[in-house]
Amino acid sequence: MTSYLFTNGHFLEPGATELRGGMEVLVEGDRVREVSDRPIASASASRVDLRGRTIMPGLVDAHVHVVASMVNVAENAAQPNSLAMMRAVRVMHGMLMRGFTTVRDLGGAEPGIAVAVDEGLIDGPRVIPCGKALSQTGGHSDFRPRADDREGVFAARVGALGRLVDGVDGVRRAAREEIKSGARFIKIMANGGVASPNDPIHALGFSRDEIRAAVEEAENAGTYVSAHLYTDKAIRRAVECGVHSLEHCNLIQPETAAMAVKAGAIACPTLVAYEGLALEGAAMGLGPESVAKIETVRKAGLESLDIMRRAGLPMAFGSDLLGGLHKYQSMEFEIRARVLPVHEILFSATTLAARLCMMEGEIGTLAPGAKADLLVVEGDPLKDISVLANGGTAMRAIMRDGRFFKNELN
């Protein structure tokens, strides 16, 4: 069993406002064995002198699509399965090299992808999958042009982000099938979206009975429902129906945010998605119908952060990027820093995102018994969050499950 003892560094504890000096971290195998402000004795561990650098938990992105190697999601779904999978491997490697050791996939990644990471077949972050997202006909996972009436087109493809289901019975069966296949939670498209051609932002997805059916099936399996949501009306309806994870939330209002807090919900804003689409979406194949929708949600994004923070609604870190826009993943830190304190942002990308992954205490923390997922960074992220950006260039080491995927400490 490989062991490492990290010494002579600064320790970033999620939620803290300052780094701690004099801490040592012992990793044995795939777990953190000991963390102490006193010298740790280990005869077998390889000593790693951090030379004043910052050691911190691996980052967690709670909203990604690892199979989305193209911005045009209809074309993405139409790829040959073998090509879509190989491109997904490249996307995942990029995420890991940006310091994200765990990602929660919000539609597309089959559970087998998560197993492939666990077995070491893919050098990427740990994946928490929902399988295919559930969408009603004409909803946010229906990427057919209006004149295309083919049924179930592309639903079984590796590159498809979602599947079409209608009616309470259809939702129940689809939820059960995804859970049976290994989905860790259920994702539904409960509002209109940017990347889909036929559903305006204000459109509601699914009936209340359909949403409640998904929630019941998830709860029966010991998990929860995550919902794609933009408008205040859609968010309120989802919370009333028992949805736990509220994705995007750009147009949320104070009363609904307070209601979500009482329900114990968690929001997952993804502001960088709209920045990326605004910068390069059209050039990368986003259709004109979708380009026209971007500004509706982009302008309200920063205001939504302030509304949710004032209400006390927890906000996990998410990016939701597609295709060539994945390179902007870490820009989410800088965007949030325009409104939120840095220590809250780092908490959102570690401990809070771990909660949505249902792995709190195992990831997003460096504590005895936790997964040995860690980063060694030049500089202090609490004073300069940009050290987590720029493609991970300031990260001297990236470890997941006790294995170095990047090591420039010598």
From TrEMBL:
A GO molecular-function annotation: hydrolase activity, acting on carbon-nitrogen (but not peptide) bonds
Keywords, alphabetical: Hydrolase
Listed InterPro entries: Amidohydro-rel, Metal-dep_hydrolase_composite, Metal_Hydrolase, Metallo-dep_Hydrolase, OTAase-like
Span of domain Amidohydrolase-related: 54-393
UniProt feature coiled coil, ranges: none
Listed Pfam families: Amidohydro_1 (PF01979)
Record PANTHER family: ALPHA-D-RIBOSE 1-METHYLPHOSPHONATE 5-TRIPHOSPHATE DIPHOSPHATASE
Name of the protein described by the UniProt record: Imidazolonepropionase-like amidohydrolase
